[in-house]
Amino acid sequence: MKLSTIAFRNISRNRRRSLLSITAIAVASLSITGLFSLVEGMRIELATNIQSYSTGEVRIRHADVDRFEILNPVHLTVQDASAVMTILEGVEGVAATVPRVEFPGAIFLDDDTVRAVGVGIDLERERALHDIDARLVAGRFAEAGQNEAVVGTRLARELDLGIGERFTILTTTALRGSNAMTFEIVGLIDLPVPALAATWFLVPIDRAQHLMRMPDQVSTVLTRLESRTPVGSAGAVAAAAEAALHATGHETLSARAWNDISETYSLIETFSIIYDIIALFFFVLGSSVVINTTMMVVYERTREIGTLSAMGMGGGQLIKLFFLEGLYLSVAGAAVGVALGVVLSLVLGVTGINMGDAISIEMEIGTVIHPVVNLRSTVVVFFYSVAVASIAAVLPARKAARISPVEALRAV
Amino acid sequence: MKALSIILLALIPATTLMAQSAEEIITRMERNQVHDTSRMEGRLIINDRFGSRTSSFISYARGADDALIEFTSAGERGQKVLRTRDEVYLFYPDAAELIRLQGAALRDSMLGSDVSYEDMTGNRALLDNYRVSLDGEETINDHPTFRVKLEARGRNVAYPRQTIWVDRELFVMRRAEQFSANGRLLKEVEVKETMEVSGLTFPSRMVIRDVLKRNSSTEFVIDKAEVNISLPRNVFSLESLRW
Amino acid sequence: MKFLVRLATKNLWRYGRRTLITAAAIALGLATYVLLDSMLVGADEESVRNLIWYETGSARVMHPDYWAERERAPLRHVIEDPDSVLDALRSQDVAATPRTTFSGELIVWRDPFPEDGSLLVHVTAIDPETDGRVYRFDQWITEGRPLQAGEPGVVLGSWLAEDLGAEVGYPLIISARSRYGARVTIDAEVVGILNSPNPVINRGGIFLPLDIADLYLDMEGAVTQIDLRFADYARVEGPIAELKQLPALRDLEIADWRLLGADYIAMMEADSVGSGIILFLVFVIAAVGVSNTMLMTIFERTREIGMMRALGMDDRAIRNLFLIEAAGIGLIGAAAGILLGALGNIPMVRVGIDYSAMFRTMDAGYRSTGVLYGAWVPSTFVIAALMGVALAVIVALVPTRRALRMDIPRALSRQ
């Protein structure tokens, strides 16, 4: 009889035992898959938020902004914005350009002053970058040409203002004078990053340009790249974009890939490290569960091993038999576990896990986390589980194979 | 009354000026520079590390306390600043409400210049706020001047110490320095040109420097001035901001 | 009963390997749980410590109107007579230090600084003599030296220093307003650079001797706050209630660190939701591991149960026997798990996990730097041990009852 047939027969003969082994392997791989999806979800969320709200995939702005950042250099703008956007759209790999005018300022209330950041947006172009409509929780978006604003939910709460009410913001213009404008709140937006929800309000870009004295100027142009552009090539597109801009007389501008902007990059790094540490704990524990269960099964069968070797089965064959059994069980267990993990992650990916309203005020992570299945790590988890379980089966089998049949038969 | 004092001033022989007290020097300077009413057109040229820009304005003033400034240059057209004794109100054409500055907000710089809103409100009669003393004589830009030291009477005066150089003949300020409590120079004002209207001489071009911020200066130029004219009623009221 | 215990012990010994594996499952589960909890609590505790040791103290005495206006750091609402307050606190053996926080502009000039610049800042004036009673800066001064009373020196947070291009010995100017509104300037020299475990301090900390601030700001002895340290930061309500009775503090307000660091605490609580999810997952895996091995142990012994019943042992005794065995395994596992967890926790607490990625740009977020330390949480050890034993017993109950329900010949025929 072929060893594999015996292995299959053994598995189906002792269904309960097999089921336990499979469960152990399945639960371990399920939770590791789930954890990885959770971490992947947080990573992607972080990247998406950075791209959607602060940098795009490639960010174009005045090259000196960084240097004078602490001096609030609103006058360092992107001049001839429409021409610049046309040039950028001609760059290989750029799918869409999204102009923004950002203006930090003070909102004067009766007794208090609230710091806020107005963002002039072109709604149609924003839609090309992210699903901004899904974020609107009440009212509507501001109409071009109107002094209307959509306010971040937390900011609205802080201002104690609702739809239909008005506020006035005082800001520094690009001419470094001051200017103020009154906006009517027409909508509330739930920005996924708490720090933004607490400070941002969105207005039509033309009104922002008027307020800021920035005719055909913007503070930043964000770009979204063609979806087929390979990951990691944002840097190359940024370089090409900058070259194209410099060649056309826009030497003051710089283009940077989102992951090349140091602060965002290190943020992602830090997150990855913390979650890798936690994933390590899960791996150790998951492995221990698998090893334990498998070893238990094999020890329980010491007598059976004795019978088999008394019947003349050689040590090598014995080990192979147990390895095969372990392999089949672990393939089944890992498949079930990984599949469940993927399904669970997909379901949670749609519904989201609400992490509470107050999470990490300044981190660019949203309050609802949507796990994302990462194919590579899922495959790794599957093979890892299979390998650990099979090896765990072989070790005690080897030991059992070495003892004499008589002794083995005596074992309970 | 005012006319009479000007005549008297002209009659006093130069020699007796030497005997003048610092109080008199300041009083005479203020008589020249602080007008019962005035209407002026001018420019504010602001230089900082990022370059230079010019804003033009029309201002109305009454005495030391009340002033209304209306900006006319493209960048800030229609913006108005109303200064009363204790408050500053800002009007912006695109804003539906007035912005009232008080407390710490008064310390912000006006249009990013070297002049704060508080500097504008703090102009009231120097002798109320400062003890003055004559510190000597000096020639500033070819003009013989009295050097007058000012020490704040109270501890709530923004600039605890000042030195003002007053022209010996014209009784107009030629230069001023403002110091912190512990004597560091904060701001310097240099009068480049003066103007005479209706017998009153006052600075028409001065450069104000915030010494703590290097590479920055604000030039204040008056192109046209009328003094002691009758101003429309309610110029210095909140309603006037919304013309 | 005594007989059952003896029999259970004998069985455990007899099935040594089985006992060992099941106990190992429990032990590993517990140890992992304990260690992960230690890490997560450690991160939280460190954050709280860094908040208290470098930013808030355990509690703060201030003028009742100060808190509402703290953003502007006004010098209007002050403690006029800090000495009487300090005396009263001393009589209660409370460690205290006076401080004055004021807003101003930090001005640096090119040469030696790389760029001219000015920055709106909050400056903290500290009493170099007594500040160490509440705060722990001195050991973190990585360059230069601590402040000395009477000299116009400034200690800067390391990241702020880096942003400005400041080094020890560089001159700078602080422009501010006196208590009465007059403009003042303080010419000071950078004497030290502070690289503390608290990123907020590193990013924005500017420290000046209190007597210098008092002189320049015309404070006449008044301070904006008196910061306190209690022996146990977790219990502040009691001591604060007592202090409020003191005549010298009657007109003042005392806020504890939970209020002073409220934004941050809120953030940490939300974070603990995430920690909860992770710990729950660990618990699930561990529970599955334990129940698996336990179930198997008992299923394997169905035959034995049949045998005992055939020999006339009553069902309750058999069930109790198996439960006692399970409890025994649970105890061994729990003991081993706790030992393992404790041993593993020693390096976690002492050495920590160094991940030293740049926390710098995580703006005002976690108050933590590159090393993650564990914490001793006795309650977790106790709870984990109880859970281990309870789980073992509960899991044993199911297959035992099942085996007891089988008829004897069927049970005996099982392999």
Number of strands of chain A: 12
Helical proportion of chain C? Answer: 40-55%
Q: How does the overall form of chain A come out from the CA principal axes?
A: elongated
The succession of helices and strands of chain A, N to C, reads HHEHEEHEEHEEHEHEHEHHHEEHH
Poorly predicted runs of chain A: 357-365
**What fraction of the residues of chain C are assigned to beta strands by DSSP?**
15-25%
**Main sheet makeup of chain C:** 6 strands, mixed, barrel
Please, what is the average pLDDT of chain C? 84
Compute the gyration radius of chain A: what is it?
Answer: 30 Å
Strand content of chain A: 15-25%
How many domains comprise the coordinates of chain C? 2
- Write down the Rg of chain C: 31 Å
Helix-strand sequence of chain C: HHEHEEHEEHEEHEHEHEHHHHEEHH
How would you portray this structure in words?
- Chain A starts with a helix and ends with a helix.
- By secondary structure, chain A is of the alpha+beta class.
- Chain A has helices at 3-13, 15-55, 81-89, 123-129, 153-159, 194-197, 205-211, 234-247, 262-300, 302-310, 315-351, 375-402, 405-410, and strands at 58-62, 94-108, 113-121, 136-139, 148-152, 166-172, 178-189, 200-204, 220-225, 253-257, 353-354, 368-369.
- With 243 residues, chain B is mainly beta.
- Chain B has a single domain (21-242), classed as Lipoprotein localisation LolA/LolB/LppX (outer membrane lipoprotein receptor (LolB), chain A, Clam).
- Chain B contains 5 helices and 13 strands.
- A 13-stranded antiparallel sheet of chain B has the order 6-5-4-3-2-1-13-12-11-10-9-8-7.
- In chain B, β8 (143-152) and β9 (161-167) form a beta hairpin.
- Mean pLDDT of chain B is 84; it is low at 1-17.
- With 415 residues, chain C is of the alpha+beta class.
- Chain C has 2 domains: 2-52 and 265-413, no CATH class; 59-229, no CATH class.
- In chain C, 52% of the residues lie in helices and 18% in strands.
- In chain C, the strands form 2 sheets. A 6-stranded mixed barrel of chain C has the order 2-3-8-5-7-6.
- The two termini of chain C are 29 Å apart.
- Classes of the chains: A alpha+beta (412), B mainly beta (243), C alpha+beta (415).
- Chains in contact: A-B, A-C, B-C.
- At the A-C interface, α2 and α9 of A face α2 and α10 of C.
